[in-house]
Structure formats: structure tokens, C-alpha cells
Specification:
GO terms for molecular function: oxidoreductase activity. Its main location: membrane. Keywords: Membrane, Oxidoreductase, Transmembrane, Transmembrane helix. The chain is mainly alpha-helical. It has one domain (about 15-85). About 65% of the residues lie in helices and about 0% in strands. Helix 1 (about 5-30) runs antiparallel to helix 2 and helix 2 runs antiparallel to helix 3 (about 65-75).
């Protein structure tokens, strides 16, 4: 049986945000020959944001629906993709 777990949800947000920030740092500081690794790292972190936004759209992130819409919108910002079409 699926149950909404706020701790797991916020842990995934923390992991994705930290990985994304680290990836952007790696992109800015890496020599040219290591950039593909930094791009792959950052792309994986952005995929985490997609998963979080997807969970928010399906109302499986939190019991608070307003919070889900806010987190979903913010998690789709790095993707440069609107959250609203995913809600329905």
C-alpha cells in the first residue's frame, strides 16, 4: 500500500537540489576534458527534478495540495518546462 512520506519526499528534493548545485559548480570549474562528466551529473540531477514534479502533479508528494503545486512549479523551473500541463 502506498503512503505519502514527507521525509522521503523532502529527502529527494534535498538530494536533487544539492546534486544540481554541485553539477553547476563542476561545469563552471572543470577543465574542458571533464565537462562531459559534469554535464552527465547535472543532467541526472535535473532528472530528479522531473521525478519530483511528476510526483507533485499526481498528488503523491505531500498531503498538502498547495505545497505540491508550489514544489512542482519550482522543480520544473530548471527544466524550463511549465508545470501546469502535468497537473491534468
Amino acid at each position: 500500500v502506498f503512503e505519502i512520506d514527507d521525509t522521503k519526499a523532502w529527502k529527494s528534493v534535498l538530494i536533487s537540489a544539492t546534486s544540481y548545485a554541485l553539477g553547476l559548480f563542476k561545469i563552471s570549474k572543470s577543465p574542458w576534458h571533464l565537462l562531459p562528466l559534469a554535464w552527465a551529473w547535472t543532467g541526472t540531477a535535473v532528472t530528479g527534478f522531473l521525478v519530483i514534479g511528476h510526483d507533485c502533479a499526481h498528488k503523491s508528494f505531500s498531503k498538502n495540495k498547495l505545497l505540491e503545486d508550489i514544489v512542482g512549479t519550482l522543480s520544473f523551473l530548471p527544466l524550463i518546462y511549465p508545470y501546469e500541463p502535468w497537473r491534468f
